[in-house]
Amino acid sequence: MADTAASPESGDEDAGRRDFLILAAGAMGVVGAASFAWPLIDSMNPSAEVLALSTVDVDLDPIQEGQSITIVWQGKPVFVRRRTKAEIEQALKDDSAELRDPEKDGDRAQKPDWLVMIGLCTHLGCIPLGQKSTDPKGEFGGWFCPCHGSHYDTAGRIRKGPAPKNLPLPPYKFVDDKTILIG
Amino acid sequence: MSTGSQWKNPVIRWVDDRLPIFTYMDHEYQQFPMPRNLNYFWNFGALASIVLVVMVVTGVMLAMQYTPHVDYAFDSVERIRRDVNYGWLLQYIHMNGGSMFFIVVYIHMFRGLYYGSYKAPRELLWMLGVVILLLMMATAFMGYVLPWGQMSYWGATVITNLFSAIPLVGDWIVTLLWGGFSVDNATLNRFYSLHYLMPFVLFAVVGLHVVALHVSKSNNPDGIEMKGPQDSVPFHPYFTAKDSVGVGVFLLFFAFFVFYAPNFFGEPDNYIEANPLQTPSHIVPEWYFLPFYAILRSVTIDILFIPAKLMGVLLMFGSILILFILPWLDTARVRSAKYRPIYKYIFWIFFVDCIALGWVGSQPAEGTALIIGQVATVYYFAHFLLVMPILGKIETPLPLPSSIAEPVTGGGGGASAGAAAAKMEKP
Ligand code: HEM
Ligand code: FES
Fold first, then answer.
1. pTM of the complete model beyond 0.90
2. Ligand 1 atom at minimum distance from B323 CA
3. What is the mean pLDDT of residues B419-424?
4. Rounded mean pLDDT of A35-57?
5. From the CA of B176, how far away is ligand 2's center (Å)?
């Protein structure tokens, strides 16, 4: 090293090589650190045993027309409502109203009688009121979130207030006429 | 070995020759020159340091009794209050200490705003302060979740959901923060881990804050630099004594709340155990977050292509981040409001604006409160982005004294004072 550095030409050549080596080593270091960071970050994601608790059966038999129940799925409240004829009609009529997050009622309920939604306001996650018959149901006859005043209609679509989206739908299927499987 | 060791005690000298901590302490906390004209507002940095120590000590003791599990957390805190020896005292000190910390730091910051302490050459000192503020907020927020009451749970839900406003990756981030599909046991555990970690990070940043302070030295009510020994007094005994007076008064204030009004700053709902299926009718954060909460909720319509929810979040974080660039937004050539005839009033308008935001944050977001909140939010940003840059250009400052000593002794600050003063005025 010492003797090559003495000659200016080979010194330049060396400098180029040194720059390259420093860059390459630095880049490898960054890649290495980043690939070690991923396991650390991903360890914060839901773990296998949390993911395992991800299906629930719901027996629909005891629910009367106009009644709702709230069940827990993945730690979240899920609203299951057996809608009245009037509510279904209203929801269909509102298909053509001005909607912030346009969705047809037919796309939100697999069977018109049954509306199954995650009961968390899409604003900041409070639980909207409207499950009990004595609850306020908002200006559109569905649900009302008291936290910052979001109104949802009879298909759980956002109609007024700060929430950006309709109440989300969990994945579910009808096992038979009287049972659904959520998850 | 070492040449100028001033230490007579051989043990001290032996250590100091190898690790000069005694020389360092002597230099930074005994001889250290402080402006002779400081008022009591310069106590608040020391007070904040005391609170930090109190929080760490009580926190470590509480951690020995606390159980970070959704099924036991609430009960373990009740047990600390009722059954653990002096648990009630530790718990109330720690709980009220959070509020004390923010009272002290907010006064400390408004002091900086009034006397222009963020201006050159103290920009980095100020910016480290803003980092400290952010760390304090994160620590306080996560600490508040630990007792697992209704406000703990729903506050955590609402605040973590803020991140879902981020386009594309928002929901992924929220799931990552929760470690599940809602605020749950995994969330509680990681908040506990981080709540324990953060104060030590705070300690480190406060250390840097103090190092930066000891380079630029303290600002003072006149906002002019010290020009020589006639302008300063040594830290010890002058400020060890003055800070002790402040600490005494402050501890009385602190003790009043701990012993006579321990729940003054708290929310009754947090004495109800967390229930993921029941949202409290009115969610409010701790008082020190109220102005920011008001800004968050003040946006009710989509602005251009930005949805209302995202805009609220951006403004809320922006309201703190904007402090980082304040040293460059303020174009004034003098520091202290004492010599700024217009800023003197603008400062108080801004102060009232912050208080108004705090009040709005405590009210439901509707009607008059909402409108006041919107006006106050606009003014908050206008203060930094319009008023500060323009005012500095158009305001004629009052003549500065030629030295700190001048108004005290009636004399000038020595031969070089005039020249140095001129230098200071254009930072
Ligand atoms: C844990 C919280 C904090 C601690 C322990 C702390 C500590 C201190 C101490 C001991 C001093 C010197 C004494 C004094 O001037 O009062 C100081 C000065 C200062 N601090 Fe802080 N500080 C904290 C938070 C903040 C925050 C949040 C800001 C602003 C965003 C800030 C900005 C400043 C400034 C600008 C100075 C120099 C003031 C001057 O000389 O006029 N500090 N700090
Ligand atoms: S969380 Fe429902 S309106 Fe804000």
1. no
2. 30
3. 43
4. 86
5. 21
In this prediction, residue A8 carries a pLDDT of: 52
**Chain B residues touching A46 at Cβ < 8 A:** 175, 178-181, 186
Q: What is the pLDDT of residue B423?
A: 43
Distance CA B380, CA B358 (A): 12
Evaluate: CB of B402 within 6 angstroms of ligand 1.
no
Percent of chain A with pLDDT over 70: 93
- In angstroms, what is the span from residue B343 Cα to ligand 2's centroid? 39
* Six token digits for residue B137: 């907020």
Q: Which pLDDT value is given to residue B26?
A: 92
Q: Is B130 in the pocket of ligand 1 (CB under 6 A)?
A: yes
Break chain A into its structural domains and give their ranges.
Answer: 1-45, 49-182
* B337 closest CA partner among B225, B421, B427, B223: B223
Q: What class is the A49-182 domain? A: mainly beta
Q: The dihedral of CA B315, B319, B324, B328: what is its sign?
A: positive
For residue A126, the SS3 value is: coil
Residue, of A135 and B56, whose pLDDT is higher:
B56
Alpha-carbon distances of B169 from A36, A143, B163, B349, B387, rounded to whole Å: 21, 28, 9, 39, 36
Q: Indicate the pLDDT class of residue A75, thresholds 50, 70 and 90.
A: confident
Kindly determine whether residue B283 and residue A147, on different chains, have CB atoms separated by under 8 Å. Answer: yes
Q: Which positions ≥6 away from A160 have C-beta within 8 Å?
A: A138, A139, A140, A149, A150, A151
The two structure tokens encoding residue B306: 């930005």
SS (H, E, C) B88-136: HHHHHHHHHHHHHHHHHHHHHHHHHHHHCCCCCCCHHHHHHHHHHHHHH
- Residue B282: closest C-alpha in chain A: A147
Q: Quick one: DSSP state of residue B183?
A: S
Q: Which helix (H) or strand (E) holds B233?
A: strand B232-234
The tokens of B218 are what?
């303290």
Q: Tokens in use for B299?
A: 């946006």
Tokens of B321: 């981040």
Asked if A77 lies within 8 A of B276 by C-beta distance, the reply is yes
Contacts of B277 in chain A (CB under 8 A): 70, 72, 77, 127
Residue B412 has pLDDT above 70, yes or no: no
Q: What is the ipTM of this complex?
A: 0.78
pLDDT of amino acid B304: 76
- B residues 258-297 near A, CB within 8 Å? 276-279, 281-283, 297
Of B310, B76, B283, B54, whose CA–CA distance to A126 is shortest?
A: B283
Chain B CB contacts of A164 under 8 Å are 307-309
Nearest chain A residue to B302, by CA: A162
CB B195 within 8 A of CB B368: no
Catalytic residue among A85, A93, A148, A173: A148
Q: Could you give the count of Cα atoms lying within 13 Å of B192 in the half-sphere of its Cβ? A: 19
Pair of tokens at residue B28: 């930074």
Q: Looking at beta carbons, which residues of chain A come within 8 Å of B366?
A: 149
- How many whole angstroms from A121 Cα to the centroid of ligand 2? 6
